[in-house]
Amino acid sequence: MTANAPLRVGLVGYGLAGSVFHAPLVSATEGLVLDTVVTSNEERRAQALAEFPGVRFAASPDELWPRADELDLIVIASPNKTHVPLARAALEAGLPVVVDKPIAGTAAEARELAELAGERGLLLSVFQNRRWDNDFLTLAALIQEGELGEVQRFESRFERWRPQLKGGWRESGDPEEIGGLLYDLGSHVVDQALTLFGPAVQVYAESDVRRPGAAADDDTFIAITHANGVRSHLYASATTAQLGPRFRVLGSKAGYVKYGLDPQEAALREGVRPSAGEPWGEEPASLWGRVGSGESPLTGGGDPVRTLPGDYPAYYAAVASALRGEGENPVTALQAAAALDVLEAARRSAREGVSVTLLPHHDEEQDA
Questions:
Q1: Strand partners, 247
Q2: 152-166 core/surface letters (b: 16 or more CB in 10 A; e: else)
């Protein structure tokens, strides 16, 4: 790595995560260049080459490690079960790593990777793009400005209506695949709750398999009691025929209700790319949330609040700064481990029908 040369990125995996999120965002980030894509699928290679002329290819991640001196960052966007072994291999090869969520199947594995990265003096970051959703950024600003007073309850929903199975490892019931919504969408809603309101001390969950032929959870509810007294009620579902609000946040002074999803994923899926000077992550005023008290937003209660633009590009901009020693890791492995503590507790709670108490870890400062 030289002072002014772009940092060269090797991307492992070119499925949904690799092609829709990581490759476009890496390429849109000043100071990063997509150097190599790991995929043996000829159709995916053609797709990558069409969008990123000059990109190189490897058929297996093992081809990258002997070339470690040619790369500055490895991004792991392959199936969940490969995250830990690939992250370990990359770190052992001396390469910084970004891992798509969830970083691992257990909090213990996440902490082991964090320890390895620390020993090697290497960046290990987790792609939690939903921290840069438009509604999340807006809510964080409202809380910071005291508009809601003291937050008492945080309701967050990632709900979809997908009555038909799509197949693939994400819907597999094999524990080794780390599939199901608890670890997929649940990773997002739990990370957002912990980021806003701090450590969890109590977890209760309900997790069901609703759709005919399904093998993994597709309708899950998680209740978190945070150490500061805030209660988070989190929903992740593929079986919701009528969608609820994305956020309903209730404070001592007012509440914030917001419907609809951040537009960035849809834009990326449609081939729209972020570029300097162009609007990105904006939504129309008709979708803005409302802040108020005593009346329903659905009947015009509360005041509309402009939704701040979403900013997924900020994640890789922060990664680039951290690699150059100019900024902090935007999402650490220990923060991801704290979220996995909650997910593991939720899985146990749903299985045994109990509420689970979490004990603080020595790393529970949610390392900066």
A1: 156, 258
A2: eebbbbbbbeeeeee
